[in-house]
What we know:
Elements: H1 21-27, H2 29-42, H3 52-62, H4 69-92, H5 99-117, H6 125-131
Protein name: Putative ovule protein
Amino acid sequence: xKKRIILIPRFFLCGEQAETVNHLFxxxxxxxxLWRLFLxxxxxxxxxxxxxxxxxxxxxxxGLLAKNRGRWRIVPASIWWTIWKERNSRCFESxxxxxxxxxxxxxxxxxxxxxxxLLNDPVSIIDVLDSL
Length: 132
């Protein structure tokens, strides 16, 4: 008799769906809160596209009026890196951060990256968020 291993698809971040790239980085309820955090700062109404490539195109268009388009372009990467780190924390270390901590991690990462890119222009958190 053959033994079968049945793999149950798990999604470590929200537990709602099987993990796919599009769900993890676009449609997960936790990821959605990060997207809304930055969109609300600019007063942008947004309907999340179905795929990553479509999201990047839409994000670029939404940022046409951003005060600092370079910083605006970094936001998706900061969201995705924050989500990836949180997912791995939950998956491999059984550590689950609060939504407030996840948002703070994302904002601090964005500020850190902005400071690394603009070494001659040290910025505060408020300056970074205001420049989006």
